[in-house]
User: Which sequence fits this backbone?
């Protein structure tokens, strides 16, 4: 008995890295999985189906069922094909894990237009296109009187929550995904769909240069293993998480942080308009006990 017996899941970008670990975990918990991957290089070029096929083989060896899908998630019609494939092949869709992504890191003054467009397209449009088509399906079922237990699990990043230098495109896309998670959660609650996002940290080709030796697997608990991240996704995909929605979790090793979104950290109040010079005079009150400079990258 798995936590996801009888469920049908899509994991995008599941040929490698975190998506691969998520697809394997969901299958190990009993879900049938559509393993999507366009087979792109880290920068988003190429089309190698092999990694996704290998994940499907592993899932089948483990006793669950899976199929490959090679859609580009940032294509509106490709995203629809992917949702349709899950329904046509396995009879329904219960869980959508939006994970696919690429990187084109450059400082803002060196970034090309295509670096901006491609990263925003794959992450932000890719998340939205998939969520849109899945939402159409779940809303239709709910309106037909069916009991829907839909799940969307998005992939944001600490780069999106805190803003990482050299990643204007990626951080903007990931902040957009975190914010879109709240919107989708509000819109889809009435149709029986929860929407959450994770901000993971794990050793993959995307982070091997960033974390380097720090992320090497040691002898003990491997906190950089993408499988650690997948466990949270397994929980969020399950019926046990029916009351968890609109949340963004930072997840790394054995640590899971529920984050609370943006909160005021200082304030000024009065019943009349402030002039710029009055705000200047009250600046120390607005920033009482806190810095007026760039907020720290991390909360811990
Ligand atoms: N690894 C980390 O520590 C980390 C940290 C924060 C966020 N993330 C996010 O986690 C997700 C997975 O990253 P990863 O580290 O496993 O990277 P990865 O490069 O190992 O895997 C990403 C996969 O997505 C696929 N892909 C790319 N564009 C696609 C498209 N248009 N359609 C379908 N598939 C596509 C790639 O072929 C690749 O297999 C990404 O959204 C990433 O931004 C990762």
Assistant:
């Amino acid at each position: 008995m798995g936590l996801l017996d009888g469920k049908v899941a899509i994991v995008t970008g599941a040929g490698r890295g975190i998506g691969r670990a998520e697809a394997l975990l969901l299958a190990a918990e009993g879900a049938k999985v559509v393993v999507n991957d366009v087979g792109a290089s880290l920068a988003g070029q190429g089309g190698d189906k092999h990694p996704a096929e290998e994940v499907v083989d592993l899932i089948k060896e483990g006793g669950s069922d899976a199929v490959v899908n090679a859609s580009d998630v940032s294509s509106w019609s490709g995203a629809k094909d992917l949702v349709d494939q899950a329904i046509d092949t396995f009879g329904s869709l219960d869980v959508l894990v939006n994970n696919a992504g690429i990187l084109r890191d450059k400082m803002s003054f060196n970034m090309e237009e295509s670096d901006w467009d491609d990263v925003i397209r794959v992450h932000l449009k890719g998340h939205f296109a998939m969520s849109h088509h899945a939402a159409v399906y779940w809303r239709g079922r709910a309106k037909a009187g069916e009991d829907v237990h839909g799940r969307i699990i998005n992939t944001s990043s600490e780069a999106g929550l805190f803003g990482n230098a050299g990643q204007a495109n990626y951080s903007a896309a990931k902040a957009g995904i975190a914010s879109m998670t709240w919107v989708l959660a509000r819109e889809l609650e009435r149709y029986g769909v929860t929407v959450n996002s994770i901000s993971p940290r794990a050793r993959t080709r995307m982070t091997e240069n960033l974390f380097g030796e720090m992320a090497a697997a040691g002898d003990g608990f491997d906190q950089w293993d993408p499988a650690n991240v997948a466990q949270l996704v397994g929980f969020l995909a399950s019926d046990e998480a029916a009351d968890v929605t609109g949340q963004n979790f930072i997840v790394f090793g054995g640590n899971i942080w529920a984050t609370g979104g943006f909160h005021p950290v200082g304030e000024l109040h009065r019943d009349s308009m402030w002039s710029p010079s009055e705000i200047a005079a009250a600046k120390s009150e607005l920033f009482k006990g806190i810095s007026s400079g760039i907020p720290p990258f991390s909360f811990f």
In short: Residues 80 and 133 are 6 Å apart (CA to CA). Residues 8-259 form a domain with the Rossmann fold fold (CATH 3.40.50.720).
